[in-house]
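S.,

As promised, the thiamine diphosphate run. Input:
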Amino acid sequence: MLVSNKKSALYLKSYFKQIGLTQIVICPGSRNLPLIVNFSNDPDFKVYSIIDERVAGFFALGLAKASRKPTAVITTSGSAALNLAPAMVEAYYQRLPLLAITADRPEERIEKGENQTIVQKGLFTNYVSYEMELEEKISFNLFEKNIQSLHQFLFQSPNSGNVHINLPFSEPLDSVEYLLGKFKFNLNQKKAPLKSVLNSIIPFQKGQNVIIYLSSFHEDLQLNQLLEDGVLNKNWVVISELHSGWKHKNLISQIDLILSGDRIVHKPDILITIGETMLSKKFRNYIRSLEGLKHIDVSYSTRNWDSLSSDYKNVIYNHNIAQILDFENTHSFQSSWLEAEIKANDYLKNRCQPLIYQEFSLVHNIINSIDNQSFIFWGNSSLIRYANWSNWKERAQLSHLSNRGVSGIEGVLATAVGYQSFIGADDFYCFLGDVSLLYEINSLSVLQYVDNFKILVLNNHGGRIFDQIHNGEILGETNALLTPHAASFEVLAKLYDIDYMKVNDLNSFLAQFPYLKSQKGKILFEINITDADWVSWKDYFNEFGSND
Ligand SMILES: Cc1ncc(C[n+]2csc(CCOP(=O)(O)OP(=O)(O)O)c2C)c(N)n1
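Predicted complex:
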């Protein structure tokens, strides 16, 4: 097989093969030629070529999210490497095994006026869980030794997080040789000690009541089983967001509605949070208002989320989670929360029937009408909130996905396409706001890697979430928060050769959405919301009043 004569590139490829890392996203460039040669010539790797590093980073993030396996994205040097930053930050907070492999110039050429050169050592320092540099002439033995700690890091848990490997290469970059045979590294994987278990035992007291709040977390059968047992047999109250990966008829989904108006619920003594950032600002404010509340935060790595309560403890998730969460609530505590949930759901049902041509009502209807087993990747901004307010709990077979690591509007489409390219679902939707889609137009180029993909775009002609959460009057005439545009999504669809459909009112939605559902292929479906259709969140639910 033809390979580059750079030893670091050669051994890295062999290591990836040995651990089954086969999905490689390549961003074209010169300095990374040794890596490109090695991966493109080896049929054991599935190689994607993506020009925009920001898109490539998120596409690889989607692959990693779907496969739960280390996935590599390879760039050339300079700003190309830096353009991976948004995806690396997202991977860091979602604890996904995204590996940024950046080619660099040799050390003596850095900061010497060379082209496409920046300081790449420590490029993502605050947002990377493991970083290393591999010298180009590295010996087999040294590589084996150096890779050992990366190996330990990657496989200590499925949620270890992201990695940056920087590889300096000197010229010539295109020297190749034929390689017969293959390398095998001697890799030991020590089991990580179950540290902190003993001092994690929490002294729950009889009569104290606990609420668990689940935001987005990696689906975990052990945890799901524990939660199910808790709500059924120990009066647990579990508030869940739609993308949490756990569904149960007795979970609490309508937290914003429950905390609106005068619905009385029992106050908890202890809050346990599991997962990424919390979507509900109303719940955060509620928790902050409770005096003497204890907060136990279960996470995959150490963090300090002590802003909700001064009595805070971080517990690292591990196999002994059942021993850690050893508590039982009073029956009346659980029933007060379940009653509030039933009332909220009844209210919601009445509020959303019949269907009206308004943003929330349409999102609610879409969740209720798409086929079982469908996947929906939600854009940030208003859409994920609408979805979370819907009765998603009743559609237990749908899979809801999101990028809530840092909640950016960028990269959602590219992540979704990466995810779908790995799972190849029959029905996969990505639902975005118009500004979010325009922000990442380049991501449409990666649709070439999927057969079926439906983009829903809620076109309310600007980033209208700001109309919901801020008082535009203080911003004067220019109101720079709003970004109205006259972009044509039809032209965009043409540009990328995908089908296009548009609805402007209730009748066209009712006629066209069932047709969209029945179709295969790649389709951009625009839901046009004019100012006349636009309704403030406060008006959907008089009691809501939540400014999130
Ligand atoms: C990368 C990034 N830049 C800016 C923001 C701030 N932001 C949040 S929502 C939003 C507007 C999104 O507009 P759109 O996608 O049309 O959705 P809508 O607000 O109409 O729901 C912006 C700019 C962000 N979250 N991420």
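Residues 379-382, 407-410, 433-436, 460, 463-465 surround thiamine diphosphate (CB under 6 Å). The first strand starts at residue 2 and ends at 4.

- D.
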